[in-house]
Amino acid sequence: MIETSLHQTTGTAATARGLTKTYGRGDAEVHALRGVDVDLPAGRFTAIMGPSGSGKSTLMHCLAGLDQPTAGAVEVAGVALQELDDTALTRFRRDHVGFVFQSFNLLPMLTAGQNILLPLELAGRKVGRDERARFEMVVEVLGLADRTGHLPSQLSGGQQQRVAIARALVAQPAIVFADEPTGNLDSTASAEVLDFLRHSVRELGQTVVMVTHELDAAAYADEVIVIADGRIARQLDQPSRDELVAALQGRGA
Amino acid sequence: MRTVILASMRRHTRRYVAATLAVVIGVTFIIVTNALSSAARDGMVSGLDAPYANADVVVSDLDGDQAASLLDRAEKEGAAASVLGWAWLPVSRDGTEFGDGVDVGALPRDNTMRWQELVDGRFPAVDDEAVVDANAAKGNDVHIGDTLTIGKGRDALDVEVVGTVDSPSAMVWTAVYLTQDAQARWLERSQINSVAWHGQGSVDDQISDLSSAYPDATVQTTDAFVSDQQKVATNGVDVLAIILLLFAAIAIATSVMVIANTFSILFAQRTRDFALLRCVGATRRQVLRSIRVEALLLGIGSSLLGLLAGTGLGVGLVALIRDRAPGARLGEVSFSPVWFAGAFLVGTAVTLVAAWLPTRRATRVSPLAALRPDTGVDARTASGRLRIALGVLMVEAGVLAMAAAIAATAVPVMVVGGLSTFFGVVVVGPVVVPALVRVAGSLAARLIGMPGRLATSNAVRNPRRTAATTASLLVGVTLTTAVLTGLASGRSIIDDEMATDHPLDASVSASTGGALPAGMLSEIRDLPAVEQAVELPGTSASIDHHVGGIRLVAPDADAGELMRSRRDFATPAADEIYLPADAVEDGKVPNKVTVTVGGHTRTLRVAEVDEDWGDVAVIAPSVLADLDRSPTTQAIWIRADLETDAEDFSGDLSAVASASDATVESSLGKWAFVDLQLDVMTGAIVGLLGIAVVIALIGIANTLGLSVLERGRENALLRALGLTRRQLRATLATEAVLLSVVATLLGTALGIGFAWVAVQTMLRSFVADVSMSLPLGQLAVVVLVSALAGLMACVLPARRAVRVTPATGLTME
């Protein structure tokens, strides 16, 4: 078991060393990651940026234990992921990692409330008083109190993403990964969702790592990691918009 | 559009596997039927002419008396005659009867007419020798040197088996062949197929002579007779083929459901493809035509595969049967182009018909659908009220029709009512089946938690698909259950009839003049299979009307207790006597007989002539007391456990009886024979229906497999959120089991209901008191097997589902 306080006291929530991911073989070989070393600070909102095909999604998948890297080591919340088998890895995700995806975040046959409580149910955890209180709090903060009985198809895109955030936060994970969470949303809904993510870092002490290719989204982050051609190009602390544009265009210049 | 069709067929090959299999199985079934029926026909027809090879003319349509007189005539005229016929007689070895009787025929007097081919040993030289058919001997474990007792009572004849023979003709072969003179004592009550005749003079003269001598009989040239026989044999095979085709039709109907469901799922998944085609300029008609051509190609391909598979399987199956069961008399397989064309057309047409409705629905998509964001698969709303109303109406009409059918014992009305009810249930399926799945699912959720709940919501989220998937299994299970229940009820009726015909399980009778020793009763009571046994006092008597010397027994009320039916039977009235059937000459039953014991005589009314209580006559105790002051134990009557092996039981009983030279009768072999026949029939029908069930299970596996593909991202999401591989597997397994078990339970309920209606309608006219008996064990096996099959159905889809890493799954289209 990992102490819940661990990720708040140590400086890093996740680290990767020499992370390499190769798809296909021979002529069709594609190097998505070419030896990435990265430390993701705890209690911070980190954005991973890069053009499409740069390997940012692959990096996230490997960091979150959704995919096995070809080589290299990943440690999340003090646990070395490469040493876990599939079942242990699944249990680890369920207990310590939260997810928000670009789309198709919710199970269509479950209500918003059921979707939010799904990780707890999958872990076989009883929804006791503490969990109920956390659920009420998260739902309240995300403005979903009157929406928990609705099916995903009865919710707007922004509402669906907020349900996904609520689900990611309810189990108090060590780290939340968000993969293009605003990719399918209009600007108002995007701002709302990003506000909530930042809010969860600032007020609730969560660690959030967001993959995005949108400058506006990255501007919400405390720290931005720019990735290009499967390598870390730049790591910027609260960059300005101009710094970001330069970093993306100059590819590390 | 051709590039589109070919590309999409290539891309979706794996998804068409189940539909292909369903068609292949249906077509294979037809071709195998062709193989079996052609082999059966060849087996029936070939060798039919063997008994007539040296005959000039054949006399048929005659009875045993006429056959006997023909033999006399042949003797006088110096002609050769061979009687092709048989008597159905009890045949026993060491007191144990073979089955419910054996057909006993004759070898022609004249060796030139002999058509049986010697396999082993030799032909009989004297009248107490016999040959047996080689296949029948093998089946009943009879060997050269065995002594068989042919017939019973006064006509009984002990013969030694001296050889085994092949009997080329399927129409007139018998299990045992005696010499013509030995068989003559049963000739009058023999069933006569024909008499082969080789006389003096031209064929025409012989025909006119015999025709004038036997005006009722048919006298033909050998060729004319053989060709008539071939027609009769072929008709029998045709009936068999039609029955097999009926089962093929059931299998094909199931295939239609599976294919239609496959297409509607596939097309639902490809809605965006179709919309995109529309966007880039394809007309609705073009899209429609493209997928119909796809269905046509699929149908043609699968039908061709089915022809191949059916040819291979048919040839193999016939070879196997010929090797393992030569008694089945299968000949050479000959495939007919008509059957091939028919099977091919059926397979192709079935595919096209099954694809028709789904294609119409699929192409109603608007071009805009391609541009909408992917919202995943929508849960479809339950079906319209009209549909429910229609279904309920069909069920109501069907039930009414079945009620009317019972009242009027009208079988066609019953069939129509049953069909209407069944299809009514299928029509309301999208409402009923998900509701049942939810109920069963809540149980599953309680047992295995989250996977159970996920499985339930997955299973019910598309009610129409759920209903269509279960409907195909419903067909097979309903029919299987109905047949099992119907046959079980029929079996209990047959058992009742058996109990009426054979009220006494077994008896031991003293040899003439003696009495049974005092200790025998307790010895018999100690035998494991004996439930009850009583001693019967009696004496030796002689009776007029050619009955002659016989033993009389007088059972008391105790003896009535062990009868399987007609308990009063054991106690005749004071002026009555029951005679054993074998004691009455030529079946001419006298009204009254005079019984003499020593100096005493009584005239008694013959109230019953029957068999199965041994070679004794039955009278009332008061009559016995009048006739003989000091009666002795003449018989022991026994009630046995019917589950006991008949041979073992007779053996045990004979061992006890042989010490005092007593004779043993047992009807257990007849019970076992009837049981075996019913078991074989049940097995055959269930096996044939099993093919439809297999197709339905392929359908379930297919639906599950396609759903797994469709839910790739959902499953990936669940895996990302912490669903372990094992839990994902459990979810899919539960879904499959829920579908198969719900279909099975519904089908079982329907099947029992239909069986009840059928029993009431069809058997009530034969049996006054029709009771249903539920074969609970068999029904439980049906449910269990379908649950297991459901588990098997999920193996492949589950393997595919768990192999996908969450990262890959999330990026799936």
Task: Please characterize this protein's 3D structure.
The complex is a heterodimer of chains A (253) and B (813). Chain A has a six-stranded mixed beta sheet, with helices on both faces. Chain A has nine helices and ten strands. The N terminus of chain A is likely disordered. Chain A is an alpha/beta fold. In chain A, 36% of the residues lie in helices and 25% in strands. Chain A has one domain: P-loop containing nucleotide triphosphate hydrolases (Rossmann fold), CATH 3.40.50. By secondary structure, chain B is an alpha+beta fold. Chain B has four domains: 192 residues, no CATH class; 155 residues, no CATH class; 217 residues, no CATH class; 163 residues, no CATH class. The longest helix of chain B has 48 residues. The radius of gyration of chain B is 34 Å and the shape is globular. Chains A and B meet through helix 2, helix 3 and helix 4 of A and helix 13, helix 20, helix 21 and helix 24 of B.
Helix-strand blueprint:
The complex is a heterodimer of chains A (253) and B (813).
Chain A: H1 6-9, E1 12-23, E2 30-41, E3 45-49, H2 56-63, E4 71-76, E5 79-80, H3 86-96, E6 97-100, H4 112-122, H5 129-141, H6 157-170, E7 175-179, H7 187-202, E8 208-212, H8 215-218, E9 223-228, E10 231-237, H9 241-250
Parallel strand pairs in A: 3-8, 3-9, 6-7, 7-8
Antiparallel strand pairs in A: 1-2, 1-4, 4-5, 9-10
Helix pairs in contact in A: 4-6, 5-6, 6-7
Chain B: H1 2-11, H2 17-45, E1 57-60, H3 64-77, E2 80-89, E3 91-93, E4 96-97, E5 102-107, E6 117-121, E7 129-133, H4 134-140, E8 147-150, E9 157-166, E10 176-179, H5 180-183, E11 191-198, H6 203-213, E12 218-221, H7 222-269, H8 271-279, H9 284-324, H10 337-362, H11 385-408, H12 411-448, H13 450-460, H14 463-501, E13 506-509, H15 520-525, E14 530-543, E15 548-553, H16 557-561, E16 576-580, E17 592-597, E18 600-610, E19 616-618, H17 621-627, E20 632-640, H18 646-658, E21 663-666, H19 668-710, H20 712-720, H21 725-763, H22 776-793, H23 795-803, H24 806-810
